[in-house]
Specification:
- It comes from Streptosporangium amethystogenes subsp. fukuiense.
- This is Transcriptional regulator.
- By secondary structure, this protein is mostly helical.
- It has one domain.
- About 85% of the residues lie in helices and about 0% in strands.
- The protein contains seven helices and no strands.
Length: about 140
């Protein structure tokens, strides 16, 4: 028999993944997408506006799942999981830090020369942190 925590983890992960796709590609505005990596305050403003709408989208999705299935998610752990996700999302979406990590890990060619390479590494980063966030949320 599956433990409730495992079920909560699986449902949170699927929910976060689906909500991520909507938030990162449909909810994010063109202004946010183009400006979130810009230097200075304007870049941070666009970045945080994106992460704000992104986090609200994930929150609504989790609230709907909890409302419908009553899985017993803890509001505190949901908050922590979404905070971790938002912080790592904001960090990566500034672009320069994530590219620096890619360079350090020997992924420069992939980032710079493979069509869509930077996007794929960006999304892989986000998916990994969605997993961590779901793990936290399931506590």
């Amino acid at each position: 028999m599956m433990h409730l925590e495992a079920l909560r983890f699986a449902v949170a992960l699927v929910t976060l993944y689906a909500a991520h796709q909507v938030a990162d590609h449909w909810i994010q505005s063109h202004t946010q997408a183009c400006g979130k990596a810009a230097p200075g305050r304007a870049g941070w403003r666009a970045n945080l506006a994106h992460v704000g709408t992104y986090t609200v989208t994930l929150s609504v999705a989790l609230l709907l799942v909890e409302w419908r299935f009553d899985l017993g998610y803890s509001a505190a752990w949901v908050y922590v999981g979404l905070a971790v996700n938002g912080a790592t999302h904001a960090w990566a979406d500034r672009r320069a830090p994530l590219r620096a990590l890619a360079v350090r890990l020997g992924k420069t060619e992939y980032w710079d020369k493979v069509p869509g390479g930077a996007y794929q590494l960006d999304q892989a980063w986000h998916y990994g942190w969605l997993w961590v966030s779901a793990f936290i949320i399931a506590a």
